Amino acid sequence: MSDALDSWFAREILVHEQALERYLRRCWPHRDDVHDLRQDIYVRVYEAAGKALPNAPKSFLFTTARNLMTDRLRRAKVVSIFSVGDFDGLNVLVEDVSPEREFSGRQALARLAEAFDRLPDRCREAVWLRRVEDLPQKAVAARMGVSEKTVEKHLAKGMRLMTASYYGGEAATSADATHAIDDDGCTNQQAD
Amino acid sequence: MTMDARTSRQIEDEAAAWLARRGGSSWTDRDTAEFDAWLAAATAHRVAFVRLESGWAGCARLKALGAGIPRGTIPARGQWAAPTPPDRAVRTAVPRTARAARLAGVLAVLAIGTAIGLGWRAWFAVEAASYATAAGEMRTIALADGSFATLGPGSVIDVRFTRRDRGVALARGEAFFTVAHDTRRPFTVAVGARRAVAVGTQFAVRRDPDEMRIVVTEGVVRLELQSAHRDAAAPSTLLTAGAVATARANSVFVRAGSVAEAERALSWRNGYLSFHDTPLAAAVAEFNRYGARPLVVGDAAVGQIRIGGNFRWSNSDAFVRLLEEGFDVRVDRQADRIVLHSR
Q: How far is it, in rounded angstroms, from Cα A173 to Cα B200?
């Protein structure tokens, strides 16, 4: 486990998160499981890459996703008719899954700006002062008139939501947003 | 996951808490130790943290939005829309029609520019050259598109490349082509009204007075025969690797063999002529393609003799000596030709 592996993981794997989530949502009958599936897939990919970096990271990611779903279906005592029906969808060609997502340029900035605007007020404020104005967290706390601990909570929430938009897909934009706006406490862990 | 009771969301929350805490003023060495222990405890921790850390780093791009906004001011929501140019991912405040018109304007300018550029190059930037080899000479030519043409002795090709197609006319003799792959510009070898069309492959085309021969050693070549009637679609034949096609005035004969066999028909490229149970008359015809002093079959019986083996085409004398020694052949060496008779 190294920084090199971490940056490889961000560069080659995380950039496909939107496509991966779309794929999982299409193939897996329970939307609630997607977050969990995604984590397990990342774990498998990361651990395998720690032994040897795959030559074709995107293919490897989707192959891992497919294998994981297959394993889970096999383990399930009761197999949902929907999951079986959708299973053909697992055999999509990786190249067809989605076009590459842009991580530079205007499109990416627009995506971030949109996500930023969907943050709850106080969370949005903390993110602006910390990330855009580069204020130390202590100064952010002073400016906002709250404790540094509270700033940390706002930021932690901001990090989750912003990352979901940065890497992830539409689910984060719609479901997270509705939830985020009526919860300004930044302590709730349940998001989408 | 099965070993861990916590959900992936809980792990993500923990990772976010660490990431936010680490940036605080109260971070201590003990926190570092605790954090390292947390990271090492499970790969799920590690990936969750790496993901948030790099995503958060990516958010630094938001700084671009801060330009022109006084420090300490939190901008109102929704004000990014206007200055952001039309983009697929943005829901801008600019009315759709205005946006479309602006986009159309930009596209039109681009299109005109591109059309002028491409058109100019397509129509005017023609690569044109002719290459010829003398009798007994063989030469490989590197073409402008990265393809190679190996000319057999006494051959002539005319090359006409444009940005849209790659045309070669075989005026005389034989040439072997290793075609650089380019799907947008088909590579065409014309022999009179017949055309062999390839995208990226290896094949040889030979022109004789009354026939054309194509040998394909790799990929696929489409042989097009020009139709007598202009409106009728030109009949075409697909030739795959290993095919040897012989086209005469009114017929095309395709022999689909192995690539090795096809290669043997092209052994001239290595300086050899390769025969396998070949009538002497045919072998002599081959030699005459390449050698300087023609061989002549003096009678029908000698032409029937079957021979096999590899012979240097530049050395027909050795071939003739072998015939003399090994077969019932009598050789009449004349100044301008060598006549073979049965003994």
A: 46
Cβ pair B55:A159 closer than 8 A: yes
Segments making up each domain of chain A, as ranges: 3-97, 105-181
Least Cα separation, residue B1 to chain A (angstroms): 7
Contact A137 B58 (CB under 8 A): no
Provide the pLDDT for residue B290. Answer: 73
In a mutagenesis test of the B interface, which of A3, A123, A166 is the best target, namely the one with the most B β-carbons within 10 Å? A166
Among B16, B26, B78, beta carbon nearest to A117: B78
Specify the pLDDT at position A153: 96
Which residue from B245, B287, B281, B282 is spatially nearest to B268, judged by alpha carbons?
A: B287
Two tokens at A157? 């929430």
CA distances from A156 to A147, B36, B197 (A): 14, 18, 62
Q: What is the pLDDT of residue A115?
A: 92
What residues of chain A lie within 8 A of the CB of B51, using their CB? 10, 14, 42, 163, 167
A105-181: what fold?
Arc Repressor Mutant, subunit A (1.10.10)
Complex ipTM value: 0.83
Give me the pLDDT at residue B297, please. Answer: 92
Give chain B's residues under pLDDT 70.
Answer: 1-5, 81-127, 199, 226-235, 291-292
Say which of B43, B61, B65 has its CB closest to residue A108.
B61
For residue B85, give the nearest of A14, A106, A166 by CB distance.
A106
Would the CB atoms of B56 and A163 count as touching at under 8 Å?
A: yes
Using the beta-carbon criterion (under 8 Å), do A35 and B8 form an inter-chain contact? Answer: yes
Disruptive mutation site among A64, A152, A170 for chain B (greatest number of B CBs within 10 Å): A152
Which has the closest alpha carbon to B55: A98, A161, A47, A1? Answer: A161
Q: Output phi, psi for A130, to 5 deg.
A: -80, -50
Please state, as a whole number, how many other Cβ atoms lie within 10 Å of the Cβ of residue A103: 15
Q: Is the pLDDT of residue A192 over 50?
A: no
pLDDT reading at A162 higher than 90: yes
Residue that has been written with the tokens 């019986």 in this structure? B301
Write out chain A residues lying below 8 Å of B55, CB-based: 14, 159, 162-164, 166-167
**Residue A112 pLDDT greater than 80, yes or no:** yes
Per-residue pLDDT, B10: 95
CB A135 within 8 A of CB A124: no
- B14 vs A87, which has greater pLDDT? B14
Looking at residue A191, its pLDDT comes to 35
Q: Looking at CA atoms only, how far is residue B273 from chain A in angstroms?
A: 45
> Quick check: B58 and A153 CB within 8 A?
no
CA distances, A143 to each of A107, A125, A139, A167 (Å): 31, 10, 6, 30
- Spatial contact of B284 and B298, defined as CB atoms under 8 Å apart: no
